[in-house]
Amino acid sequence: MNKLSVGKVQVYTGNGKGKTTAALGLVLRAAGARMRVYFGQFMKTGNTSEARALREFLSGAVTMEQYGSGEELSGPDRERDTACARAGYEKARAALGSGEYDLVVLDEILVAEHLGLLVVEDLLRLMDERPERTELVFTGRWAAEAVCQRADLVTEMGEIKHYFHAGVPARTGIEM
Ligand code: ATP
Ligand code: MG
Fold first, then answer.
1. Which ligand lies nearest the alpha carbon of 73?
2. Could you report the per-residue pLDDT of 88-115, keeping only the tens digit for each?
3. What's the CA-to-centroid distance between 153 and ligand 2, angstroms?
4. HEC profile of 69-90
5. Class of domain 9-166
6. What is the predicted pLDDT for the residue at 44?
7. Which residues line ligand 1 (CB under 6 A)?
């Protein structure tokens, strides 16, 4: 039984910090409402703090899967990275279509599309196939125009200032 009477499509994009964090905030809120949550992460692998928290503290409420090779940005391999993204896409599509989830978050899917690991039609297909009462969230920089046009909500995190440019790398617990 779906918790939502109506589901929407949300996009969190832009260059500023907060896209994945916002999606995780929504995951937390939905879990508190006893919604069934699926969190799929493109281009990431391994023990990020959010993966650990979801697995250790929220495994009863949230199904979490990572689809990345982990080297998409540091040492890209087109064939391998496309295969990972495609396999992930099919998992995400099955989860969305199963009707078993009230909230489906696909973190960094917009980046996977921007890099050409997925094509824009893949994302539009997910939006078309979304069960009416499932909320679908895409995150990542560089959202495609066609995706934004079809979404119900688009939030752009604008970078006014970021310590990354002052040489502060991603920190465990804050960025990863
Ligand atoms: P968060 O996960 O903190 O909510 P986000 O999802 O909005 O951030 P992403 O684009 O997914 O942001 O990833 C940001 C990561 O990339 C950070 O780990 C940061 O260290 C790094 N990074 C590289 N360049 C930049 C930049 N120009 N602005 C912000 N972060 C950057
Ligand atoms: Mg992110």
1. 1
2. 999 999 999 999 999 999 999 999 999 9
3. 17
4. CCCCCCCCCHHHHHHHHHHHHH
5. alpha beta
6. 87
7. 15, 17-21, 141, 157, 159, 162, 164, 169-170, 175-176
